[in-house]
Amino acid sequence: MIGLIKKAKYYSESFDFNITISSAKTNAFNKGKDNYKHPCHDTRDFEFKKQNNDIFKAFQDKDISGIGVALGFEKLRALDIDGCKNVQVAREILQTLGLSKKYKWLVQTGTGFHILLRCDVLPLDKIVLGSNEDFRRRFRKIEFRWKSFLILPPSKHRNGKVYSFVNGDPKDKPKTVSAESVIKVMLQFCKNTPKACSNTVENPHSPKKVNDKTSEDECNSSEDEYSSSEDEYNSSEDECSSSEDEYNSSEDECSSSEDEYLKQKIPSLWHITHIDNIKSIMNHGLLSNSSAYKNSKPRNISNKGVQVWRKRNDPIYSRKLHDYVPTYISIENPMLYSLKSLNRNLCILEIDSSVVTDSIFIFTDGNAASKDTKFFNDICELDALPWGVLEDDYWCNYDDGKRKKCAEVLIYPRINKKYIKSIHCLDYTTSKMIARKISQSVDIKVTPSLFF
Q1: Which strands, in side-by-side order, build the sheet including 149-152?
Q2: Which of 115-119, 140-144, 355-359, 381-385 has the highest mean pLDDT?
Q3: Is the peptide bond before 413 cis (omega within 30 degrees of 0)?
Q4: What's the Cα-to-Cα distance from 382 to each of 3, 45, 254, 261, 353, rounded to whole Å?
Q5: Which residues have CB under 8 Å from 59's CB, separation 6+?
Q6: N-terminal to C-terminal alpha carbon distance within the chain
Q7: Domains of the chain and CATH, by start
Q8: Of 92, 105, 100, 212, whose CA–CA distance to 142 is shortest?
Q9: Is the pTM value of this prediction over 0.85?
């Protein structure tokens, strides 16, 4: 991966992190471990003293699969929210911790989210708790990780997804939170909170204060009371992480209801492009405006006057609108109507809506460039969209119908070509032109009914 070593040095120098490096090549340090996560080098003393940065000279980008950070050093800790597709859950946890919803050290992983922070010790070095009844369908478990190591952006997860900062790259070190606020997260979101932890919150002024010098007999005295063995807290896949069959088998039960609701409301998303762009799209996927114009010169069919307003930031993640791939919820919209003179040169890409739950997303109740448009990022808020006009063939009979009919789903930072279900075109002449431009197997449909 290009740039990982440079990024590792940046983390080390800017935030005083002790950096770990992972490699797909097996050696004595990662044998029998997950090579995408486990360090491929000696990490002894990483918890206690700053590493020697000579380690970076021993590796090249082509040799490594990811970079991470050693937890424990300078009281750096992490909450690992697993089996979670909805960033709103992570935001609720941030608020419980006393942090901003736009906290910079919120990372989207391959299967959920990480929150990096600083905190004093807890009675256990690692606690794994399953979600309670209220959150059973929203995430699978939370690992409260006080030691070991954690993967950092822009490493790649084994499932192909890239770790990324949800709220933009951080400029400052992770913030410090109290142990009490961490335990509040356990009590509010999880089940089976250890007594040693819950008692800390219930009796915050207890003379039995937990600190680095507390003896093993006081803090972690017996597995029956504090860690209770893997059988109680991380024991069995039936309890905390239950089993891939129960929680993450196919569509991930903790998010399955949202997935089904999304599919019901939005079976497909739609993207309009010029036929000249189709070869690049099928090779590289759908790129955001910002990325596309860095790498090439795509054929532009957008309204230049409207595009000026897309240079502004979205109100949720504070990213430029041009950093997202725009898709429409309804394809028979004013944008497509304005392009009817180009019908024979247009392609309408039908995109599987599962890209939403697999990505960072925003949806809008109208054209994203309009100042009157509202932005959302919780699937549960889909009902806030103007479904009357979106499901109608016309928009003129609705108040502000032109804006509303252009409601969008914005996907960050790109849409992999695997989500493209079909390429729709006006006639057979256009379909043959498309077929000549691409080598990939994709469903090319002649669908004149979609065009004006």
Answers
A1: 19-22, 66-70, 149-152
A2: 115-119
A3: yes
A4: 38, 49, 18, 9, 13
A5: 5, 21, 23
A6: 45
A7: 71-253 (3.30.2250), 266-450 (no CATH)
A8: 92
A9: no
